[in-house]
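Predict structure. Chain length: 301.
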Amino acid sequence: MSRAVKGTIVIDGQELTVSNPNKLLWPEMGITKAMFLERLAVLSPWLLKHCQDRLLTTIRFPDGVDGKSFYQKNCPSPAPPFVETVTRDSISYVKLASLPVLLWLGNLACLEYHASFDRVSDPEHPTEWVLDLDPTLEEEPRIMEAALLVGDLLRSLGINSVPKTSGATGVQIIVPLVKDLTFDELRRIGEFVGAFLADKHPRLFTIERLKKNRGDLIYIDYLQHYQGKTIIAPYSPRARRAASVSTPLHWDEVRRNVAITDYHLLNIDERLQKEGDLLDRVAPQSLRSILDFISGSGARR
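Prediction complete.
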């Protein structure tokens, strides 16, 4: 058995221990822990932005993506003094608000970063609305076609949105919001949109919750967007063999049928330096008029 290797680095005035820097975390991509920490540092301005003020759940892979994994909600122990937590429902969540905290988690082989839909500072009013397109098939060649149909429908309703790869198999449609609707009100809009698409494209979409009853259809998950539930954070790596990263897209890229695996830890920095955060290009908007329309339609029926 090889001797464990440890070293220390100083980031923003904080000293961190790095263990086993040469351990392969993504063997097929040749990505070691040291490389992963370097990539996290590159991603940090964008990843931190989308995780701060959220409850954080990580997925840890101590032996890399081919090994066993477990979810981590409670702050790992022992934690260095610079790690702050926020407690909800007896769980002490890590506040992911600085590069040292991110790299500390990375050294613990936290490969995925899932953020709550609700904000710590205001859990009642979401600042975005998300439709999660979840394929039943492990490989779904129609996923970009499906995302485009959703985007086109939202655009016809006057709703601006940003498509984002999950980094795994699905695509999420994100709508930045002003804080004037509740999660329950947004669920009503999601049900309306999902039911309409499933009715119009019955060979492509479903709103059936149970996977065993979906056949090969793509599930429009409007229920996941709720207080206490999580989404893979924008710019989070995924524990997939391609080291893919959850990446916001241009709608033109969706039309070109880009692959989810096109954006990964080894090339995401070039994209971010060129494009910046595509989620910043859509201004927060109100969906109050859409909710009023749905409510009026229901009353007339």
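Summary: The chain has two domains: 6-119, 128-300.
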